[in-house]
Every structure is written in structure tokens, then in C-alpha cells.
TrEMBL record:
Family annotation (InterPro entries): Acid_phosphat_B-like (IPR005519), HAD_sf (IPR023214)
Gene3D superfamilies: HAD superfamily/HAD-like
Residue spans of biased composition, Basic and acidic residues class: 1-12
Species, as recorded: Penstemon smallii
Pfam families, A to Z: Acid_phosphat_B
Entry-linked PANTHER family: ACID PHOSPHATASE, ACID PHOSPHATASE-LIKE PROTEIN
TM segment ranges: 41-66
Region (Disordered): 1-24
Keywords: Membrane, Transmembrane, Transmembrane helix
UniProt key word Oxidoreductase: no
Stated name of the protein: Acid phosphatase
Taxonomic lineage: Eukaryota, Viridiplantae, Streptophyta, Embryophyta, Tracheophyta
Length: 311
């Protein structure tokens, strides 16, 4: 073979070896990329991530379940509240007109009896009393009585006498210590406590207080003893009806009493009562404050007359 032939053979051999090495490298590279290598640490992290994701997903499902049940409960409560609110609004307005027209209990719709129980037991009556007393206190917080003793406040004594507690010590304990937290007490007793609280507040600020009662004069001693026993003392006067005034409607009786007081030089700063008959007529002074009553039961004139005759 010539020298030229040997040189061609060497070049051919060299070129033939290049693809072989290239193929080997490509195959090696392919083998490395096709496999997945994972260390034990990476595997631990991966598994922990899966567990965490599963726990989070489970927590989310539990939360959604609780939310759905809560929504169902709220929807049920909203429906029930709507039914109560509709009856409450009706009975509340009916009660107001019953007071204005002096209607007896027989005039009330039966549904109002249930509404009245809820009104008291759920604490709304107590809140209404507290709000009204706050309004009264705000008014008197901005004024002071003159030194001549002619600025007077008229209060309905029968608001103190409406419901006699078991003992005077128990009443005063409820006023001073208990903070009026128990809304399950009798409605009239609850009103009694709030009125007593207002009385003591006005008395401590130096306001002359005149009490007016529907009860007959013959019960004065018993009435005075009871008022004193529950801490209601120090009033300027207690006005009660004489025998010839018992047949007179209390609205007319009180109108005459207020007119007489004003003619005698007294300045009526406010009249405070839970009954409409005490808040009508002339000479009502600067302010009239109506204390809330129960929804279902209001007295009427016939009932008042019968009770007085029994007394």
C-alpha cells in the first residue's frame, strides 16, 4: 500500500472512532436524565409535605362542615326571630293603645301573653326600664333645684307599691348589691326596684319629692309603714284620695292636685309614672316621663276601682 493509502486509512479510522465516542456520551447522558435520583432527606421532605397537605385539606373540610351547620342554625334562628319580632311589634303597639284607652286584659290577643313572657324572661323589659331611668337621670343631671324648695318632682307612689317583696332587707340588698342582674324576677317587682333606685338618686341630689297614690286616705298608715320599710322615706308629701274623691277618675284627681300645687307657688319640674292617667291633663311641668310596663297586663279603671274597694 502506498503512503497515500496508509494516510487515508488513518483518517478513516479516526473519523470512525468519533461517532462511537459521541454515541457513547449521548447514551450515557440519556441514561442519567431518564432516571430520578432522590436522597433520603429529599424523600422525607416530600412525604412530610404530602402529610401536611392532607391535614390541611382535612381541617378545611371540617371547617366547612361546621360553617354549614352554623348557617343552618342561624337561618332557623332568623326565621324564629322574624316570627317573634312580628308578634312583638304588634303586641307592643297594642299595649301602648291599651294604655291610652285604659283597656282591660280581656282585650289583649292571646299571642301577647307568650310575647310578654319572652319580653320579661329575655331581659328586654329590664333593658327598657334601665334605658328610661337613664333618660330621666340625664335630664336631672343638667339642672339643680333652687334653694327656695319650690322646685318639686311628682312621682307615682303606686309604682313603689305595685308588688310587695318578701322583705325590705331583701329589696335593699337587690338594689345595692345584686346590681339588678336577675331578669327572671316578677315584672312588677323589677319595676319597683328601678323606681326605688331613681327615687334614691333624686333624693340624694336634693330634689323635693311628692308622692301621689290612687289608694284611699284610710290606708295612709299602712302605706307609710310599707314605704319606710323598703327605704322610701324623706318625701315632702304623700297625697292620697279622701273618701269623697274615691269615685273620681285618677286622671282628674291628679290634675286637680297639680293645679293646686302650681297655684301655691310650686314649680313642677317633672311627673314620673308608669300609668297614663298620671301623665295627662294640665300642669304637667317641664317634663313627663313614662316608665315602661309589661306588654300583656295593664290595669283598667274598673280593675283599679275594684281593688280599691277591696282595700
Amino acid at each position: 500500500m502506498s503512503a497515500y493509502g496508509h494516510e487515508l486509512e488513518r483518517e478513516y479510522s479516526a473519523q470512525s472512532s468519533i461517532p462511537s465516542r459521541g454515541g457513547s456520551e449521548i447514551g450515557s447522558q440519556y441514561s442519567t436524565e431518564a432516571g430520578i435520583y432522590m436522597s433520603s432527606f429529599a424523600a422525607t421532605v416530600f412525604i412530610s409535605g404530602l402529610v401536611t397537605f392532607g391535614v390541611s385539606l382535612l381541617s378545611l373540610l371540617v371547617a366547612l362542615t361546621v360553617m354549614l351547620r352554623t348557617c343552618e342554625s342561624r337561618n332557623s334562628g332568623v326565621v324564629e326571630m322574624y316570627r317573634y319580632t312580628k308578634s312583638y311589634d304588634y303586641c307592643k303597639n297594642f299595649a301602648l293603645h291599651a294604655e291610652l284607652n285604659n283597656l282591660c286584659v280581656d282585650s289583649f290577643p292571646a299571642i301577647c301573653k307568650d310575647v310578654n313572657q319572652i319580653y320579661i324572661k329575655e331581659g328586654q323589659y329590664k333593658r327598657d326600664l334601665n334605658t328610661t331611668i337613664s333618660i330621666v337621670e340625664d335630664f336631672f343631671g343638667g339642672i339643680r333645684p333652687k334653694n327656695d324648695g319650690r322646685d318639686i318632682v311628682l312621682m307615682d307612689a303606686d309604682d313603689f307599691l305595685a308588688s310587695e317583696p318578701s322583705s325590705s332587707n331583701h329589696l335593699m340588698h337587690r338594689i345595692e348589691e345584686d346590681g339588678l342582674q336577675d331578669s327572671s324576677v316578677d315584672a312588677e317587682y323589677l319595676k319597683h326596684i328601678f323606681v326605688m333606685k331613681l327615687y334614691l338618686k333624686l333624693q340624694s341630689e336634693g330634689w323635693p319629692l311628692i308622692l301621689l297614690s290612687r289608694k284611699p286616705e284610710k290606708l295612709r298608715n299602712a302605706t307609710v309603714n310599707y314605704l319606710v320599710s323598703v327605704g322610701c322615706y324623706g318625701w315632702s308629701s304623700l297625697i292620697m284620695r279622701r273618701d269623697n274623691e274615691m269615685q273620681m277618675h285618677f286622671e282628674e284627681f291628679l290634675s286637680r292636685q297639680r293645679t293646686t300645687l302650681q297655684r301655691n307657688g310650686f314649680r313642677i319640674m317633672a311627673v314620673i309614672s308608669s300609668q297614663m292617667d298620671a301623665l295627662k291633663g294640665p300642669c304637667l311641668g317641664k317634663r313627663v316621663f313614662k316608665l315602661p310596663n309589661r306588654i300583656f297586663r295593664y290595669g283598667c279603671q274598673d280593675d283599679d276601682e275594684n281593688q280599691l274597694q277591696k282595700s
